Structures are given as C-alpha cells and as structure tokens.
Amino acid sequence: MVETNWAGSHTYRSRIERVRSVEHLQEVVAAAPRVRALGSRHSFTDLTDITDVDDGVLVSLDDLPTRVDVDPSTRTARVTGRAAYGDVATALQAEGWALGNLASLPHISVAGAVATGTHGSGIGNGSLATAVASLDLVGPDGELRTVGRGDTDFGGSVVALGALGVVTSVTLDVEPTYDVRQEVRTGLSWETLASGLDAVIGSAYSVSLFTRWGDAGIDQVWLKSRGDEAPPRPFGAPAATTLHMFADGDTEAVTVQGGVPGPWLDRLPHFRMAFTPSRGEELQSEYLLPREHALTAIERMRGLRERLAPVLQVSELRTVVADDLWLSGSYGHDVVAVHFTWSRDQERVYAVLPAIEAALLPLGARPHWGKCFVAGVAELEPLYPRMADFRALRDRVDPDRVFGNTFLERVIG
Ligand SMILES: Cc1cc2nc3c(=O)[nH]c(=O)nc-3n(C[C@H](O)[C@H](O)[C@H](O)COP(=O)(O)OP(=O)(O)OC[C@H]3O[C@@H](n4cnc5c(N)ncnc54)[C@H](O)[C@@H]3O)c2cc1C
C-alpha cells in the first residue's frame, strides 16, 4: 500500500511498522539499522522518511492508546507522544485544565509538533515546544530515557527533528481552563499596520493576519482574546459573518467567530477537529524572523507579490516569543512568522522559494522545519547559534545515526 504524508506531497519510501506497545517499540528500534518516528504526518517534505537505504523502518505509534495524566501539584500533564493535540485538549478540559496555546489545527501529534518547533501566535506566547517540561524517548539502543528541564541536554532535545530518539510521552505545562473569544476584522491597510504594528499584533492574546500581499493590505485579522474584556480595536471593521481565510473555504471547518466566548480548545485553533484543516490540497512554507524586521519583511514580500500570486493561496503573519531551545525558530528572540499556504504544485512552489529566501534569510529568517524550504546547512548554520551544540549532542546520543536521514544531512550536516 502506498503511504503518503497528509498533503500527499511525499510518498514514504521506507517500510512502516505499527508498534503495539512501548516495549515493542524498544525492540524494533534496537533491531533496526535506521529508524524514524512518524507523527500524524502533517509535515510537507521528506523530513520524516528514510530514502537512502532499503532497510530503514518508520515507526508508527498510532496503535498506542492515548493517555493524559494531570498532576495538579506540578501543573503538568504527561501525555502520549502520538496523541493529537485535539484529543489531549479534550481530556484536559474535562478535568478543568488547559494548555497555553495551540497551533492552527488540532489534528497534529504532540511529539511531531514539538519536534519541528510548531507554534500558534501571540506576543506573550512561546512555541508549543516551550510548554514541554520533559520527554520520555527511546534511544538508538532501545533504552527509554527521560530528559527534563534543568538537564544540560534539554535545550537540544525538544525541537530535535526526531534525530535523538522516538518520543513516547511528553510532559506539558498546564493551567486552569479558560475561555477565549474569537473575532475577525477585515480591511487593515498597510499604512495602518506600518504605523501601529505593535498595537495590532498585541491587540489580543493571539493574533493572525491573513494577506495576499496586494494593495488591499491585510484581508483578515483573526483575534483570539482571553477573558471577558473587549479591548479596543482601532483598525479594520468587524466581519459581518463567519469567514474562512480562503475566499471559497468551507466556513463549517473554522472555529467559532463573532466574539462568542467558549472553551480555549474550541477557539485557539483556526480549524475544528472534525473537519479537514486549511485547504487539504496544499503545500506550506514559513519563515520566522526577528520581530524588529517585520515591516522590512512585509515590504520585501509585497515586492515579490506578482511572482508569488500564481501559486499562493494565502499568507499569514503570526508572532512567537523567544525561547532557549537550540533549533527553535524563535531561539533567542521574539519573532514574526511569515507563512505561505501554496497550491499543491511542487515545481512552481520550489521555483519561488529561492527568491523568498534571498529576501528573508538576510533578515535572520529561519525556515519552519516541517514545511517546504530550500536552504541547506551552509545557509542555516549562521542562523542557529547552537547548531554546533546540537551536532555534539547528536554525536553523543546517536553516534551511528540510527535516527539519521537525508533531510538531516542536508540541513544539519
Ligand atoms: C494543515 C496544516 C496546518 C499546519 N499549521 C501549523 C501551525 O499552525 N503552526 C505551525 O507551526 N505548524 C503548522 N503546521 C506544520 C506542522 O505542525 C508540523 O509539520 C508538525 O511537525 C507536524 O507534526 P506531525 O505529528 O504531523 O509530525 P510528522 O509530520 O509525522 O513528523 C514531523 C517530525 O517529527 C518527528 N516525530 C514525529 N513523531 C515523533 C516521535 N514520537 N518521536 C520523535 N520524533 C517524532 C518526525 O520524525 C519528523 O521529524 C501545519 C501543517 C498542516 C498540514
């Protein structure tokens, strides 16, 4: 059977083995010469696959039951690595707990999302990986070990691209449940954004700006606010009806808008668990760059709009707070994330990426590890001050490159 990633943009070349238990996983890892862990398969490239040898194994944890165990005394929850955020969120909510943030979709696995530095938005919110307190992972010898905050290896072990082992469970920070209101505003001009960028991106707990880079400016602003207070919104106009970020998108698929309060898990993602997120037939790219360069980045993308237009479905701008995870897109500084949802046309998408990277990488932009980009180790090395430390950690944990693949060769070396 042909097995592909979610977008259908990559066909896995290696054999997939569905493990029945953690012990079974340990046996498979110890016996296989090369192993990669599969999450929910939402990344867009060969990141997860083994394409250069014939005896590699992709381990699927899909058959392991989801567990969510809250420890109120430490305000943490230990969750199965393969669990989808949506299922974790439902279990937490049932016990009166919440996560601090979510990505645009609830379908992605916890371990797969944190491995690539997946994020939502908010000038006070770190990436999803910053909520990780510890990880349990099976190393190349099949042994299970735990890495937690405070351990010297921790900074390199969370956003680790599956290079250090197979994560079986993740302990996440939790907080008491809360409500969120989501409202959408339309028609934010470039001039208003340029004169008040901080006010716009700081006008709610989580803010997403959708644009196609044309003269219309920002088409939609999605604002997710916590609590009851309605802050002033000195820009755009409230949307009269529920909107999808794609002009012809199915509005059934998006989370409740209109400022109606509801549980955090039903408002923080853009998309509802029971529906296909985003377009379904698409590719994505994203670049995270220091926030002080946001307006320059916008100017540069507007300059490219005619080249982007034929393959661009929509772009989204979000913010992520600085962290100290070595391979994180937001390592060391607060960032703006410049995202592109493309048509599913690999050739044309990869033809425009060099122009985007020529414009954004000099601003310090780091590509999202799970999405499409062309930069290799030579371009990426200067962008990650702790890249050498990550390599040293990898040499120590996995000297034989059991968890290696051609993607990692290309981007880490
Ligand atoms: C429709 C859509 C919307 C998206 N929205 C966002 C968004 O809002 N924000 C954002 O930042 N990104 C977003 N992404 C990107 C997505 O979050 C990342 O690609 C993420 O890594 C996908 O996680 P996954 O579970 O599908 O992992 P996979 O794609 O299956 O794997 C990704 C990486 O994680 C590793 N991995 C997976 N499971 C484990 C494990 N148990 N142990 C060790 N390593 C593991 C894999 O080996 C691989 O290196 C979106 C993607 C799609 C398709």
Polypeptide structure, described:
There is one protein chain. This protein is α+β, with helices and mostly antiparallel strands and 413 residues long. The chain folds into two domains: 68-177, 2-Layer Sandwich (Uridine Diphospho-n-acetylenolpyruvylglucosamine Reductase, domain 3); 179-367, 2-Layer Sandwich (Alpha-Beta Plaits). It is 22% helix and 25% strand. It is built from twelve helices and 19 strands. The protein has helices spanning 22-31, 85-94, 110-115, 154-157, 190-195, 197-201, 294-303, 305-308, 346-360, 377-380, 387-397, 406-411, and strands spanning 15-18, 34-38, 56-60, 68-71, 76-80, 97-98, 132-138, 144-148, 166-173, 175-176, 179-188, 206-211, 218-226, 237-238, 262-263, 283-290, 312-320, 335-342, 366-367. The strands form four sheets. Strands 11, 12, 13, 14, 15, 16, 17, 18 and 19 form a nine-stranded antiparallel β-sheet that branches. It has a five-stranded antiparallel β-sheet with strand order 4-5-9-7-8. The longest helix is centred in the last third of the chain and has 15 residues, at 346-360. The model has no long low-confidence stretch (mean pLDDT 96).
